[in-house]
Amino acid sequence: MNPTGKPLLLLLGLLLLAITTLSQAIHTTPIPKLGFAATAVACVPRERTGREIVFSPAFKRGITSDHLGLLTSWRQDDHDCCRWRGITCSNLTGHVLKLHLSGIYTNEHTGMEGLVGQISPQLLYLDHLEHLDLSINYLEGPSGQIPEFIGSMKSLRYLKLSGIPFSGTVPPQLGNLSKLQHLDLSDLEGKEGMHLADMSWVSRLGSLRYLDLSFINLSAASDWAHAVNMIPSIRVLRLSLCQLQGANHSLAHYNLTKLEKLDLSSNYFDHPYASCWFWNSTILKYLDISSNNLYDQLPNAIGHMASLRVINFSDNAHMGIVEPELMTNLCSLENLNLQGSLSYGNMTELLDSLSNCSNKLSELNLADNNISGTLPPGIFQQFADLVTLDASNNQLTGPLPVEIGDITEEHFANLRSLKYIDLSSNDPLNIVVDPTWIAPFRLERASFPACMMGPQFPTWLQWSVDIWLLEISNTGIKDKLPDWFWTTFSKLEELDMSNNQISGVLPTNMETMALSYLYLGSNQISGQLPPLPRKNVKLDVSNNSLSGSLPSNFGAQNQQMVTLILSFNNLSGHIPESFCRMEQLAALDLANNLFEGELPQCFGMTGMAIVLLQNNRFSGSFPVFLERSTKLQLVDLSRNNFSGKLPTWIGDKKELVLLLLSHNVFSGIIPINITNLSNLRQLNLAGNSLSGNIPWRLSNLEAMKEDNYSFNLDIPDDSSYNNLSVFTKRTELFYGPNIFSAVNIDLSSNYLVGQIPEEIASLALLKNLNLSRNYLSGKIPQKIGSLWSLESLDLSRNKLSGEIPPSLSNLSYLSDLDLSHNNLSGRIPSGSQLDTLYFEHPDMYSSNDGLFGFPLQRNYSEGIAPKQGYHDHSKTQQVAEPMFFYLGLVSGFVVGLWVVFCTILFKKTWRIA
Question: Which interval of the chain is the signal sequence (predicted)?
Answer without folding.
Answer: 1-25
